[in-house]
Amino acid sequence: MKFNEITKKLNSSVINSSLTNHPDNNPNIVGLAPVDEAIAGQLSYIEGDKFAPMVNKTAASALILPLDEALQNQASERGIAWIATKEPRLIFAQAINFFYKPFHPAPGIHPSAIIDPSVKLGKNIYIGPHVVIEHDVTIGDNVCIHSNVVIYPQVFLGSHSILHANCTIHECTQIGSNCVIHSGAAIGSEGFGFVPTPQGWFKIEQSGYVILEDGVEIGCNSAVDRPAVGTTNIGRNTKLDNLVHIAHGCKISENCILAGQVGLAGGVKLGNRVILAGQVGVANKINIGDGVIATGQTGITNDIAPGEIISSSPAVPHKLYLKVSAIYKRLPEMYKTLKRLQKKIE
User: What is the pTM of this model?
Assistant: First the structure.
């Protein structure tokens, strides 16, 4: 595909950005690659100062650049075709769609699938080998259900959603449109509820259910638990990475991102646009406000006000954490100084 053709397509599909004109250089682009691995015939991108020196080193035939005239001049001097934008990473993400299409089988039902007669099926559905769908399930149009998926009774699955191989959807779960559940995930699994008695732990039956709103994505081997009563909710367009655990009764709002190995205890509430980096843990019934960012391995034990950036365990403001970290490295030296001062005082 010629670079000018890619540029025209990007201009017609661009989201919240605009592309500047590029020099009259129109190489043939056959694929995409990271800027430090790209070879002739490939398109890549530059985002931020860290990779800016790669403009003079990369073998890519074309680049998506930030609005930086110096970088544009460097690319032109090396004969590299380019376009420039405020959001190079976003434009590169859109360019990937011109070269890669995810596997999506043609509509049809494999003969090995077991589907209860009460199931309501929409149009243009794919149901793969050894899928099991229990009674009173409703499946919308253009849904794709890959091999070995198990869907318990009374589940609703919205249109254009994808269930990847070996995921499990437990009873009464409601999944919106354009959702993606990746392999090994369990949606609507039992919450962890037990009451201590003199005879041991008494199990609390988990009679609630899970609601995933439109555009939710759940990563591989993640679990979203149903509560004893009520619902566990995940809001529109929220994305969960692999190995994330959402406990019973959590309420996650819209456009949140939870990275790998995040764990939420029961009853946690997240506002809109919350970002929890890898291995963040949140204690029971904590409220986290809109726009909060928690860096990796943060332990959250108290409510967090909207807009805060937090780190460490227990969580503190990120700027304070940076100051404390700088002091921490000097503790051996400071301890020696303290011992000398003690001796002088004595």
Answer: 0.90
- Looking only at the bridges linking them, the beta strands covering 194-197 and 200-203 are antiparallel
Residue with tokens 């700027």: 319
Same domain, 280 and 137: yes
- Predicted confidence at residue 14, as pLDDT, reads 57
Domain boundary among 64, 96, 128: 96
Please choose, from the candidates 232, 313, 306, the residue with its C-alpha nearest in 3D space to the C-alpha of residue 275: 306
Cα end-to-end distance, the chain, whole Å: 81
How far are the Cα atoms of 52, 61, 91, 93, 95 from residue 40, in angstroms, in the given order? 19, 5, 20, 20, 17
Structural domain includes residue 260: yes
Same domain flag for 208 and 177: yes
Q: What are the counts of helices (DSSP H) followed by strands (DSSP E) for the chain?
A: 5, 37
Residue-wise pLDDT for 227-246, tens only, equals: 999 999 999 999 999 999 99
Percent of the chain with pLDDT over 70: 96
Give catalytic residues, as residue numbers.
Answer: 248
Which of residues 92 and 23 earns the better pLDDT score? 92
Q: How many CB atoms lie within 10 A of CB 36?
A: 12
Q: Are residues 42 and 150 in the same domain?
A: no
Examine the domain organization and report whether 76 and 126 are in the same domain: no
Q: What is the pLDDT of residues 284-320, one digit of tens each?
A: 999 999 999 999 999 999 999 999 999 999 999 999 9
Q: How far apart are CA 89 and CA 22, in angstroms?
A: 17
55: DSSP letter? G
Structural domain contains residue 124: yes
Residues 130 and 213 in one domain: yes
- Read off the pLDDT of each residue in 38-47 and give the average, rounded to a whole number: 95
Is the pLDDT at 12 greater than 80, yes or no? no
Do 88 and 127 reside in the same domain of the chain?
A: no
Listed in sequence order, the residues at least 6 apart from 123 whose beta carbon sits closer than 8 Å to its beta carbon are 141, 142
Mean per-residue pLDDT of the chain = 94
Question: Please, are residues 169 and 152 in contact by the beta-carbon 8 Å criterion?
Answer: yes
